[in-house]
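As described in the Methods, two query proteins were run sequentially through the folding procedure within a single session, without resetting any intermediate state between them. The first query and its resulting structure tokens are shown here.
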Amino acid sequence: MKVTVDFEECLKDSPRFRATIEEVEGDVCELESKLDKLVKLCIGMIDAGKAYNAANKQFVNGIRELAQQSPKDEVMESSLTKFAESLQEMINYHTILFDQAQRSIKSQLQTFMKEDLRKFKESKKQFDKVSEEKEAALAKNAQAPRNKQHEVEEATNILTATRKCFRHIVLDYVLQINVLQSKRRSEILKSMLSFMYAHLTFFHQGYDLFSELQPLMKQLGGQLDQLVVDAAKEKRDMEMKHSTIQQKAALQDFSNDDTKLEYNVDADNGIAMEGYLFKRASNAFKTWNRRWFSIQNNQLVYQKKFKDQPTVVVEDLRLCTVKHCEDIERRFCFEVVSPTKSCMMQADSEKLRQAWIKAVQNSIATAFREKGEDAEKLDRKSSTSTGSLDSSSEPKEKSLKGDSALQQVQAIPGNGSCCDCGLADPRWASINLGITLCIECSGIHRSLGVHFSKVRSLTLDTWEPELLKLMCELGNGVINQIYEARQEELGVRKPQPGDPRQEIEAYIRAKYVDKKFVRMPTVAEQRSKVIALSKQEKRLSSSSEHLPPRPPPPTPNLRPVSNISAAAGWEEARRESLFCPDELDSLFSYFDNSSKLRSIKSADSGIQNSADGSREMLAATPSTNSLCEAEPSESTLPVFLPKSDSTVFSEPKEYSPGLQLFWASYARSLPDMAEALAHGAEVNWVNTEDDNKTPLIMAVQGGSLVTCEFLLQNSANVNQQDIHGRGPLHHATILGHTGQVCLFLKRGASQNAVDVDEKSPLSIAVEAANADIVTLLRLAKMNEEMREAEGPYGQTGDETYQDIFRDFSQMASNDPDKLNRFQPYDAQKL
């Protein structure tokens, strides 16, 4: 025990002792003040902690109530319940922590203050008293006269007794001081150490608790991306449904037809007709009440609220009849009569009354015919011949979705695992790179931005055939050979499944954004690559894409040729159109009736034409200036004649990735195109030495639909023109590539653009007598005008128009021979 006041010094009662005593007393006074403050702060902390626990407990109860509110969502209910239990356990740990703070800080320090400091104060009082007595005794002894012996003896005796008492008291006081000085350290440190151990236990318990919870949290975190995708898909579906309903409602308002939203067929629950009707009660007052009626399961029933048990009006429709009621004051009334009773009902309009009467009659007939089976659906949507572009009986092929797309893409070597981390069974893809990804890497790719990577689900999204073929043409192996060419050379480790997200994200950014692992070619290597591509013969893609014969790439001259065989060739091409005359009539009539456009101004010719003029355009030979002229003479039939039969490669002034992309697009080599983009090629690069043509125009001349799709997915400009003012749509029309025309129209290619000869794609298709392309261009034009006329309700496009273009896309990808009937005429044969 360290002695702060010397015992020997206290007996001397020296000034040094007095100074030490004064210093110790001041220190103890300050200690008492700070301990008192600390105890009060501890009490405030404990009170605040209890309030926090109470509020936290209410919050946890709110989480439990939210979990109970989602009984049908197993993931949400179980996760929230587990989280609430964990948070409740943390509240219990907090309670224990605050109890320990009360015991270790408040109780122990208060005990120290009440006992040890109190003893010190009592000893100080005795010391102060005896010190005063000693001083008085010394003064009296000094004042005693020498000649008065009895006073001297008395003063001496008092001084002796007082000194003896002082020595006893001062020794006790010094002992108390030294004990207090030593004990203050142990008591304070013991109290704080106990409090810190309570904190240590609290955090250990919390760590153990959340360590057990971590697998669930990690699993839920992995599911969140999928949940976000599902929510986005549901939102998109709801928005599409909302737009469709708005469009139907607008058409209903326009035609004053109030039966479309009331009259429906639902085969799943057997409802043939349902809607609101007024029903006359059978009471004495004959009141009319509005009820929800339905014809289902061979019965006529109604209900007031959804949860109410339906009231049966007619048990068996085979036993009843329905008739108009014109002898009462109310309008639009009809009566259903059965052998036991009759029911008077009122519709909201005459059309609705007729619909209900017809529905009841048809249900009666169906009940008799099927002998009590469920009634057939009454409001079947008529399917016109516009939905089929092929006169054969083959069913239409729809866009691939789900497992079909997943199986085809994963069948490509290397696509069975994630391109970036190697996780097996990837369900996501980057469509502009042509690679497959796991869900974690797909989230990182989304964060890069669509100018680097466009992510799509292989199981949830719908895949167009040309996009699916693009995925099968490239793949993880091809792209990794390009983007990871220098990975091992640089000594960079490729991420593995389960690595921290930060490491995977850093690797992906270095790979695709910074392109650190791409091996940049030398000028000689680039020159060799460009020359090899320019001399490359016709090449088929690895996905067995059946491509039409590649037409000559130079820009064709447009000049009329006088020859009977030309007219005969045009008639033959017209007759081979995918559309039969009846289908064309139905198509254009459909667009006329849907859009309510009775007069359409042709943007290509500047002459006003009716919809019938569009049909005449395909039934008669048009001239170069009008789409609805009379039959042309043999001397005025124009054809397209190419300038030459082959591409001439001239040595460029300099070699660049853009030039490689230019010739790779013509050679249909997607790996070389992807390599050029990785080397920094501009997707809209312009070849100033070759009529300002772009890679997309060369892809058109190469004849491959997939190369066009690849460039468009990588942000190629679908309307960029060459030196002759012709864009990709012009070139595809000139070369008769129907599939490419369909693709460009879907991607927003402008039909109104004209070349230096003031010719639009439509006028070129008319002169070339390509009935399929003419039809596509006219339908796209009519759909655009219909959307403009309908305002905001026409933004999603017409369903029939979309079906037609979907079918053309299927044929262009899966059966291109059907679209490859048009060939440019040879001048030497005419």
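Immediately afterward, the second query was submitted; its sequence and tokens are:
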Amino acid sequence: MDATTITRHAEVTLTAVTLTAAAPTFADVVAVARRGAHVVLAPDALEAMAASRAVIESLAEDTTPHYGVSTGFGALATRFIPLENRLALQRSLIRSHAASSGAEIEREVTRATMLLRLSTLATGRTGVRPVVAETYAALLNAGITPVIGEYGSLGCSGDLAPLAHCALAAMGEGEVRDETGRMLPAADALAAAGIRPLELREKEGLALINGTDGMLGMLVLAITDLRALVTAADLAAAMSVEGLLGSTAVFAADLQALRPHPGQADSAANIRTLLAGSPLVASHQTDECTRVQDAYSLRCAPQVHGAVRDTIAHAATVAGRELASAIDNPVVTVDRRVESNGNFHGAPIGYVLDFLAIAVADLASMSERRTDRFLDQARSGGLNPFLAGDPGVDSGHMIAQYTQAGIVSELKRLAVPASVDSIPTSAMQEDHVSMGWSAARKLRRGVDGLARVVAIELLTAARGIDMRRMPSAASTAAVISRLRENVPGPGPDRYLAPDIQAAVDLVVSGELVAAARGVAPELV
């Protein structure tokens, strides 16, 4: 599976993001990372940077060693670096730390990483000159994206290798992609954009790499995507309840209120709203219906989907705190002290990235179980085996469920936490690391897989409802109508992969949820 960028038509389009000394928002990150919004540095940010830079420069000629200013790094922090070698120290730091390997990470991840490092610079707590931040803003605004390999960060002492590649590009070294996606030497890209390469001074190299920005950027993007996908999963569940002739009584507000988890209440409300007035639901609410209770994958959808919602909310709280943070080591404090600290440790982010991976796997697992019920003649309530047009001659959606099952199995493997797998580095100086970057990388793959699983459930539920040959709820009818613009209805077997991809595209773009909201704008 390739990582899929999930964007929503309902998102506000921002043409420019102004960075102040305060925290950026989720919308700021998404606008710059995904939609190429320009970055503007506010006057208060430039003033804060200039003030903290004065503190660093006052220490530059001090004979007392100051970490990051006049010493080596990591396990080499005990070595005092003479004044004449300070610029070489910063260059060497960036060159040596730009050591990533593997497949190139996505443009949106790199842009989010750069923006968030720039945001920390703008707090005035890192001691860099304003020109450093202005150069990063210029790179973002020119659409110049450093080429970064997937491996290299352990999520402690910051996302060192990824951030070093960003700094290397600002120095006019390494490889980048321009706004058209063409790969070229950084020096050529900067020259074409009229950007002067940075010559880093005391502490500036360290300030550019000692942050949690890569894993945080991926967390913000994942939360943005999952907020949309959990609503799509509510829609899929509602359509499965409808197509499988399930009961809607269990979704009643008073029953849900007996267990007052906010996410559960939201998902149950969505399902009730989507199925309101459904003739198909009403058709089997008669004395002839002997079913007492539905299977858990139908009956317990609000409980599982709601738990996912609450997990997303918790992760968003953590991400919001991190967005408001100034991560560097050492930092320039408000009262002008330069102090070492451990705020670069990625544990808070790594934990919630892993938590989200668990929620993603379980949400997909329940979706796959509902899909499977449609395909089993013994459990589908009278539908053709595998929803085939001519069972035996046709296989219907048999193998679509195999695809789901393969993805769900992978999502379970991806749910194994990365954050428990610390490994020591830097001659045991960095003897406990977060692995938050790895947690973020696997979560991106998980989000992509979830989108595909939910899309196949929607595709299958729509086919099952169509095969009932009865009217469905107004909301679900609007969704099926939108789907049918891209995917034909039931009939003989045809090449199925394009139908699945069309459904994935409609989920990823938000168009199916938008179709439902056209009838039921109160969906959350």
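The CA atoms of residues 394 and 498 lie 17 Å apart. We note this only descriptively and draw no conclusion about the first query from it.
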